[in-house]
Design a protein that fits this description.
There is one protein chain. Strand 1 and strand 2 form a beta hairpin. The chain has 398 residues and is mainly β. The strands form seven sheets. The protein has a four-stranded antiparallel sheet, with no helix packed on it. The chain has a four-stranded antiparallel sheet with strand order 5-6-7-8, with no helix packed on it. A four-stranded antiparallel sheet has the order 9-10-11-12, with no helix packed on it. Helices cover 12% and strands 39% of the residues.
């Protein structure tokens, strides 16, 4: 009995300090219904909801394998990122993975072997904390566009890593983060940032083909569906002005081929929409707002599913599976959801760091995720298997 009380005190102290409980404490929580009930009983409603969400996400991962099926990562720090990775994407043919890291560099990886092919170090920013937040293949994949804090979007040749100049896109002087990006196969780069417009940049010509206006102070997200000839954008809500009129959180649909506005819809929720993703056929659009993901049909803008991933903490990224029937969310860890029922299908893990991004391979079999670690992880979607690690985890500081 004394031992049980001591264990409960350890758990309660960790939770009361608002720090993450260590692995030992969470193992105790997950293995003991009595401890869970005792901890939960003393909480207020919101704290209990957060605790229940953490239990639901952590406990199924306690006994999952920690090593990938293919351990091919090189041990050298020169062949890896050395800090958090914010973004990763497959090339159109699925042979290469592109990554963006807090260590100030872009990584190119062989998807089949997990080996690093090239590391491109971006120029220093104007601030001590100047991180590479995003990187995407543009057009035929021969060009990379990368966004780093306090810098214009930079272009690089994929094959050589040689700098190819910057992209003409203006944001406010107060803007710290680079704009959100989306790309097309014919070389259009869409940029959404602290601006009323989302610009469609012809990368080869380095000029704006058209501008999507009406986002107020901030365009928060952008996504492209070439299959449906659509661009989706989102805008933050604004407080009521002196006349009592504010601005709701908005979603927009535009014709990709012409830039014509075809629909606007209000996005519910307390948080601004800061993530968008189309299904591969363009028939569905996922909107991230805080810890909730809402799924809409693009034909009639009807909300078909609402998935509460976490009652308090934000979802960082989302991606549809290839068939459009499931969704992978990136929050404390990657998770697979069934869109017909809104139920959790499986966790991908173990995963002890915040998940930053997720992308699906062109063949639909794998997902690559990034996190508050210096390695990328590749998962087999159908089974949840940890398939491959890219780079090494040097345990970068929080």
């Amino acid at each position: 009995m004394k031992a049980m009380i001591a264990l409960m005190l350890i758990v309660l102290a960790a939770l009361a300090s608002r720090a993450s409980a260590d692995d030992i404490s969470w193992t105790l929580i997950c293995k003991s219904t009595a401890i869970r009930d005792k901890v939960s009983a003393g909480m207020q409603d919101m704290d209990r909801r957060v605790f229940d969400a953490d239990v639901a996400s952590r406990c199924p991962r306690i006994d999952l394998p920690e090593k990938p099926g293919h351990e091919s990562a090189e041990a050298s720090r020169d062949k890896s990122h050395t800090d958090w990775i914010y973004d990763a994407h497959y090339s159109a043919d699925g042979t290469t993975i592109l990554s963006a890291s807090r260590d100030g560099s872009i990584g190119l990886w062989d998807a089949a072997s997990g080996k690093m092919l090239r590391r491109i170090v971006m120029p220093a920013g104007t601030n001590e904390y100047s991180y590479v937040r995003s990187a995407v293949f543009v057009g035929d994949g021969k060009t990379i566009a990368a966004g780093k804090d306090r810098l214009p979007v930079q272009l690089y040749a994929t094959e050589s890593g040689e700098a190819q100049g910057t992209v003409p896109f203006s944001v406010s002087k107060e803007s710290f983060f680079p704009p959100r990006m989306a790309v097309t196969a014919n070389g259009l780069l869409f940029l959404a940032g602290d601006s009323d417009t989302v610009d469609a940049i012809d990368v080869a010509a380095k000029t704006a083909r058209y501008k999507l206006a009406g986002h107020g102070k901030t365009a928060t997200a952008v996504a492209v569906s070439e299959a449906a000839d659509l661009v989706a954008t989102a805008a933050a809500g604004e407080e009521a002005r002196g006349d009592g009129q504010g601005r709701p959180k908005q979603g927009y649909l535009w014709k990709l081929s012409s830039g014509e506005n075809v629909a606007e819809f209000t996005i519910d929720g307390r948080s601004d929409p800061d993530g968008l993703a189309f299904s591969r056929d363009g028939a569905q659009l996922a909107v991230v707002s805080g810890g909730t993901v809402r799924v809409y049909t693009t034909a009639d803008k009807k909300e078909t599913q609402t998935i509460i991933v976490h009652p308090m903490f934000s979802v960082f990224d989302v991606a549809f599976t290839a068939d459009g029937k499931q969704l992978i969310t990136c929050q404390s860890h990657p998770a697979l959801w069934d869109l017909a029922t809104g139920k959790l299908v499986r966790h991908f893990g173990p995963f002890n760091d915040l998940c930053h991004s997720v992308d699906i391979s062109p063949d639909g079999k794998y997902a690559v995720t990034t996190s508050m670690a210096s390695d990328l992880k590749v998962w087999e979607i159908a089974t949840g298997t940890f398939d491959r690690r890219l780079g090494i985890d040097v345990k970068p500081p929080r």
